[in-house]
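Workshop exercise sheet. Pairs work together: one partner reads the sequence aloud, the other fills in the structure field after running the prediction. Swap roles for the next sheet.
Pair: D.N. / O.F.
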Amino acid sequence: MTIFHPHRLGLQQRVLPAYRVPFFDLLAGKCNGGMSLFAGQARPVEMIAGGTTKVARHVEAQNVHLFGGAFYFCYQKNFIRWLEEWNPDTLIMEANPRYLASPSAVSWMHKRGRCVLGWGLGAPKQSRLWKRFIHQFDGMIAYSQRGAEEYAALGFPREKIFVAHNSVSAKPEKPDDRPLTIDHATILFVGRLQARKRVASLLRACAEMENKPRLLIVGDGPEREALQTLAKDIYPSSEFIGAKHGSELKPYFQQADLFVLPGTGGLAVQEAMSYGLPVIVAKGDGTQDDLVRKGNGWQIEPENYEALVNTMKNALSDTARLREMGKESYRIVSEEINIETMADAFIKALNA
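Structure field:
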């Protein structure tokens, strides 16, 4: 049964990335009073592709970026003006103490007797700053179960914590069946080519496989030239496809037998699963815990090269098992973790 939020919703983000647009539009369509999204521009160095909403009303925030790295802060100048103009009944905000205008916005809502929910990955353990910060919210929406546990560990009431599994993809169509026997497996990486993705480790690991797999590397970034030079020396058959987006990615997911993300981050994991692929991913912020399970893949430590090699050898040793794990990947994103179930979780939190 489709559920709706009967009131006017405001939602704040630091930036509006293109990959979030489908979710925000879906959520806006479930708010009977409408939804306004307050978000600004990222720094050029972040190279975040912006998006345009069709259902949600996007208002441009004036982001002032202060300092960088571990000392980065952001101040959104016209936050209160947006609140005054949109006048939301409920506000959802990114739960991040680095966003300096957040306390003023929470205060504005509370003075009018209105509810504010935080939305985030989780919080560091035993952090007084985070404990004070999250307790200003009336409820918390966590990206993952791990994030929910981290908020609870800081004393936030469990009955006011909701889990909306982080997702960027809609319910997928059932993928075509893959053959049960293959001569050489195809391994796929999709993502930005930067140091933290550890693509160099993937190149070296492929070189250690007894039955050499075909390696497709889809993406672009600052490390591409260095990686191509390295590949010539250690795995010259590697195919660097370049940046692909949307429907352009489909043939590469369809050709693959296994998706590998050896470094941190990466929104392509869920998309790979929607094509019925088993996955090997590095442990990260907790969103992988919900997506990647024993039935559909493996989680490894992000800097453990030996674990990467051994896991890849294990994965490629049994094609029939790979296919069954791929079917489970598809089931997870079809039934449990997609933008439809994520939007419903937001509405349930709002209505609670």
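Discussion prompt: The chain has a mean pLDDT of 93. What would you look at next?
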